[in-house]
Design brief:
By secondary structure, the protein is mostly helical. The protein has one domain. A hairpin with a 5-residue loop joins strand 1 and strand 2.
């Protein structure tokens, strides 16, 4: 499911809600392409730490965890930056997924 967010200057972003398959397969790389440097750095550092602790075998664990939560984090960051749902349908979808409060 996707929603469209728009900011005051008219820029729109179509964002996916739910599980992030790109984060699952590529780790922090999708966050870099989205320009989300904060979460890309956090994901990279956590994967590096998990890899060091487990001699490389556990570096995938943070990627798996972030696959479930990254899209929600990204949408919340966009909302904090001034983006909002483009219509009432997108707003209700965000409310149903507990991203926006009612």
């Amino acid at each position: 499911m996707k929603v469209t967010l728009k900011n005051d200057s008219g820029l729109t972003k179509e964002v996916k809600i739910g599980f992030s398959w790109t984060t699952f397969f590529f780790g922090f790389i999708p966050a870099l392409f989205r320009g989300d440097l904060k979460w890309a750095a956090i994901m990279f550092i956590l994967a590096a730490v998990a890899g060091v602790i487990t001699a490389g075998f556990g570096a995938w664990i943070p990627g798996l965890v972030f696959s479930f939560i990254y899209n929600k984090l990204y949408i919340k960051d966009l909302i904090e930056k001034g983006y909002g749902p483009i219509d009432d349908e997108d707003k209700s979808i965000l409310q149903q997924n507990q991203i926006l409060s009612k």
